[in-house]
Amino acid sequence: MKKILILATLATLPFNALMAASYTADPSHTYVSFAINHLGFSTMRGKFDKQSGSLEYDPSSKSASIKIEIDAASIDTGHDKRDEHLKSPDFLNAVENPTITFESTATKWNGDKLASVTGNLTILGVSKPVTLQVTSINCGEHPFSKKDVCGFDATGSIKRSDFGVNYGLPGVGDVLDLDIELEATKN
Amino acid sequence: MEQILNRPEIQSAVVPFTAALLGYFGLRKHTPAAWIWALFAAFLIAAGLINGATFTPLTGTRKIILLVLASLIVAALGPVVVQQARLQRSVSAALGIIAILLVFWAVVTRMEVTAIALFLVGGVALVLWLTWIFDRISDDPARLHGAGFSLLLGTGLSATAGASALLGQLALALSASSGAVLLGWVLTGKTGKSNQASGSISTLPYVLAPVLLGLAAVIFARLPWYALIPLASIPLVTRLLPGELESRFLRSVVSTLPGLLIALAVVFWIWQSGSSASGY
Fold it and tell me: How far is B37 from chain A (nearest CA, A)?
């Protein structure tokens, strides 16, 4: 009887994952921003103005997956000439590689809260595993739309040279701090 | 040492110039294609410093590096296989057009139909024009390398001003190499018609490099397309100038200076027009 129960539990595991609620990112409340050292003097910040994404999330079965697509040409550092340079082959090569993607492959949980997400980040066509620490995640009914919404804040660091973005090294920093804030509405 | 080799002026000027000069002096007595092999060695080293030895993923810029290197090998060995002048021109033009398609087709097909048509017409016209005009000056080292030097310098500085130092550095490395070959010829060459490799296939790198790097600066960055027109006129200006001077030094100056002025005027124009993305 015990074996049957265990087998039955195991058999339902994939379905638990499949049953995770699916959410679509709200572009007006989703931000991907970054910070990088500039010539050792200061920290330069920037963001992307266009991104889309989806979230599968079920804390009861501790299953979650995240997918984010960023429009590389929407980079915005508050300076037009610098943005044009950042879109060029020296940095993001946005014409040839219009999309930066992050797709989760594994998650870690702290109780019933998502603690970190590991996934493949693809920049310039190069995919590398990156772990994002989830500093906050909350789900509930939106007070105005009455729809179910999930939102999270996540941070991580990458070395841009790992992705072949080598221009300006070592003057312009190699380590890039990423911040992702995403709000998603249940489908 | 690594810090020195990371400096753009070392990568795209000092190293290729020195490598090409040494290559030219080392090979000039052994093969008429000495200048081509000198450019090959210089560009190989410079591209290695600028891009590294990585070719994955195969971006447009990396395709250009490989195609320019391939064109230098074809330029050195091709005339042995294809000797007839008209056939050389056809082969050279065909290779230029194929190279354009290899680098840009994946990106261009995402554009609107009108933009695709304009790109194809412009790109093919540029290849045909430069193939024809470089063929006309291919047997005169002063004109050939003077035009090559100025055209690549203009392309490199324009690409840099048009938002891509990477593309600019590659063109400037070849420009420095051409300058070194020209200097080598001034110091050691014969006046009048030379015994160096000539003909359309030999000049393929002088056609392919500015076309691919110039178009890449337009497509991948923001160099205005019309900047390529005055640059493409440089070999014509070089050809029209009087070149029958006794002094090799004077011939090289006369063949280089007008193209150099055009190249600098184009860069100044880009800078003034606000198309430049550098200097922030």
Answer: 28
